[in-house]
Amino acid sequence: MSQAQHSPLSRRAFLRTTTCTAAAAGIGAIVQRARGATTTQPARPLLPHGVLGRTKFPVTLVSFGAIKLRDHDHTRVLKLAIDKGVNLLHTSDSYGGGKSIAAVANLFKADKTYRDKVFLCLKGLTRQKEAELDKMLATLGTDHVDSWLCELQTPDAGRLETVQALLDAMKKKGKVRHPGFVCHVDMNGSIEMVVEKAPTFFDVALIAMTMAPVPGDRDKDRTGPQSERFVKNLKALREKGVGILSMKSGAAKAVQKGSEVYLPHAKAILQAGADSILTSMDAFEQVEMIAQLDIKSPHLTEKDRQAAIDFKQQRAGACLMCGECTGACPLGLPVADLMRFRMYTQEYGLADQARLEYTALGPGVHNAIANCGLCEVCSGVCPVGLASSATVRETAAMLA
Fold this sequence. Notes:
Layout: H1 3-6, H2 11-16, E1 30-32, E2 38-40, E3 62-65, H3 72-84, E4 88-92, H4 99-110, E5 119-123, H5 130-140, E6 145-151, H6 157-172, E7 176-182, H7 187-197, E8 204-208, H8 224-239, E9 243-247, H9 251-257, H10 259-272, E10 276-280, H11 284-291, H12 302-314, H13 335-346, H14 351-360, H15 363-368, H16 377-381, H17 389-399
Parallel strand pairs: 3-4, 3-10, 4-5, 5-6, 6-7, 7-8, 8-9, 9-10
Antiparallel strand pairs: 1-2
């Protein structure tokens, strides 16, 4: 893939939107908008930051994914991260059966100023309803979320219209500041639908970056057509003013390996087009490392590039969330979901989350898996050779 094709952020353009200053006193300044609504607008962040699309929020280049939070010790990890300057937080009532959002709530309730120090993003396990949002807001002790990320798993125009109507209603009620979407299944198809049918509606997108190539890597075996299409779509989203939060990039695994792996990986994801790399942290030493990173520039040295490529190769069998297997199964099995649950278990150590989401598929899917094995259609379409009847059955047995 050529440099022009993947269109990474130039060093000069990146530096125009990033800065780091230790002179920021008091991150949580609340400002009034023209119509009387308030939104979280911190002063200059303590850590290197960019701009989250049309929200104009000065988001730190590394943000906090709370999927691993479970207890009071994890609440302290989150507090340290915010104290160090991380200013975007993402959680959900579906993470850990509610334990993640409870850990966040413990911090907000102990000191209400912490709510004002972060751009708060929420999403749900089910297809979103106002009652679900109300439950999360009540748990957190806040009256609004900065971005509610509604699911757009496939390019379904009817679903898009439903999501837009819901988010419009929530904005009018003051419960949601910035409409957002998230996708776990057909990443390219869903992005293309948004760009075509709702190019100015969404302010934030939570995007799986598994398909993002390491900038400067020209090995077609590692990049491939899915990656080229993905980077083109990511660029189109950015051009429409959508702020990009990365997920499923491998950051949770990279942060455990230390700065020599995490830093090159983070630079690669940021240069590929993310505004902030959402990272699941559950240990104090991880936060301390993040706070000390020299990440003001996305420039990849040759050593950085090779480290990022090596790490990507270690994850070569991870689900791309490319959507190729969507609708392919003659039995109607959600193969893409099952491959994602497998990734949660084997790569992220989140077996409880995987079981929770597997259970939510319902007995109809669980029973249908017993008949899997009569064909290998999913295996034929999976670009990384992950999906297969054997993998489907193995994953179901692991999560049952």
